[in-house]
Specification:
Elements lengths: L6 H5 L53 H6 L1 H7 L25 H13 L3 H15 L1 H8 L15 H27 L4 H14 L9 H28 L3 H31 L1 H14 L16 H11 L5 H14 L10 H27 L5 E3 L7 E3 L1
Antiparallel strand pairs: 1-2
The structure holds fe (ii) ion (2 copies).
């Protein structure tokens, strides 16, 4: 029933196969759930890279790097202000049982009682969202591929590098919070979840941003808005299922995503002002490639279509849908005043027409997909101990 909003669905996916780590000392694990040492470990297939489609590099003309150097001060005054001082940020502990308090066990018990009321389909989506956040090393790497804005030293004082590090540090709280919550709630198979994270970080991502900060920041703008929407919806659904604490937890993450979206949107707004042609061409380029979700290469060692299955459940329960994708495109077209751009090249005008007509086209496709929708199957998700969830 879901419109295929994941471009990987359209191109077919060839998921990675990894070898198991060699287990040096299984004897030390009194409470460990490590799998037994296998005689076959030496025969396991070596790591195979997933099939990738966007491997072009350094496509931005080198002279455009100057634009980003010249925006250094502008970024300090206009972008870094969207970071929150650490002392004012919430921390994962603020939403979780306090292990240093006497009431810890009771708080954990209450958290688990509340979680019992929530269906598996919700947990499948929350796990997928958490795993997406967990691949943060990949996203920081991606931002540091961008020509003109990358952190050249690991502690570069430029505004662009300062933003990337502080953004990563803020995002890391999302990962911690969701992981710790899911660990305690007792509703998911953490070993399967943890394996999926390890596979995903090992695979990386293939966003098609080609070292260009134009493409890179269009991608991040889109993603921040997408995560704002999806965490907002997991908050809304937690409320529906009667868990106000979980709703607050997800809502706090959504609020961060909104702040990040504001910053990335402003970068593109500025680029549209300085270089409308280059910006609209980049916008159309990313839209033609379709925004592949950052965790599109996820794999749990069992389900070769795990990302598609997770996306289908997210679409069905209304956490992130094809309609949301179309709404984001429409919002960005409005926000960057793409319709009003003048003085474009012939290619620029074509790109402008393409992006301005895209949201209605996606909606029409979605309507047709809905009409053709058949009853969707139930499939097992290893994340919820193999229990079946409707796609
Ligand atoms: Fe996040
Ligand atoms: Fe974010």
């Amino acid at each position: 029933m879901a419109l295929n909003i994941n471009p990987m669905n359209m191109i077919g996916s060839n998921l990675p196969s990894f070898s198991l780590p060699s287990l040096k000392s299984p004897k030390v694990s009194m409470v460990s759930t490590l799998p037994p040492r296998s005689k076959d470990i030496g025969n396991l297939k070596p790591f195979t890279a997933p099939k990738l489609v966007h491997q072009a590099t350094h496509t931005m003309p080198p002279h455009k790097i100057e634009i980003f150097n010249s925006l250094e001060e502008w970024a300090r005054d206009n972008i870094l202000i969207h970071l929150k001082p650490v002392e004012k940020c919430w921390q994962p502990k603020d939403f979780l049982p306090d292990p240093s308090s006497d009431g810890f066990e009771d708080q954990v018990r209450e958290l688990r009682e509340r979680a019992k009321e929530i269906p598996d389909e919700y947990f499948v989506v929350l796990v997928g969202d958490m795993i997406t956040e967990e691949a943060l090393p990949t996203y920081q790497t991606m931002l540091n591929t961008l020509d003109g804005t990358r952190d050249e030293t690991g502690a570069s004082p430029t505004s662009w590098a300062t933003w990337t590090r502080a953004w990563t540090a803020e995002e890391n709280r999302h990962t911690d919070l969701l992981n710790k919550y899911l660990y305690m709630c007792g509703r998911v198979d953490m070993r399967q979840v943890e394996k999926t994270i390890q596979y995903l970080i090992g695979s990386g991502m293939d966003p098609g941003t080609e070292n260009s900060p134009y493409l890179g920041f269009i991608y991040t703008t889109f993603q921040e808005r997408a995560t704002f929407i999806s965490h907002g919806n997991t908050a809304r659904l937690a409320k529906v299922h009667g868990d106000m604490n979980l709703a607050q937890l997800c809502g706090s993450i959504a609020a961060d995503e909104k702040r990040h979206e504001t910053a990335y949107t402003k970068i593109l707004e500025k680029l549209f002002e300085i270089d409308p042609d280059g910006s609209v061409l980049s916008f159309a380029d990313m839209m033609r490639k379709k925004i592949s979700m950052p965790a599109h290469l996820m794999y749990d060692g069992q389900d070769e279509s795990l990302f598609d299955h997770y996306s289908s459940v997210a679409q069905r329960i209304g956490v992130y849908t094809a309609k949301d994708y179309a709404d984001i495109v429409e919002y960005l077209v409005e926000r960057w005043k793409v319709k009003e751009l003048t003085g474009l090249s012939a290619d620029g005008r074509q790109a402008q027409d393409y992006v301005c007509g895209l949201a209605p086209r996606i909606r029409r496709l979605e309507e047709r997909a809905q009409e053709r929708a058949k009853e969707t199957p139930f499939i097992p998700f290893s994340w919820v101990s193999g229990r079946e969830v409707k796609l």
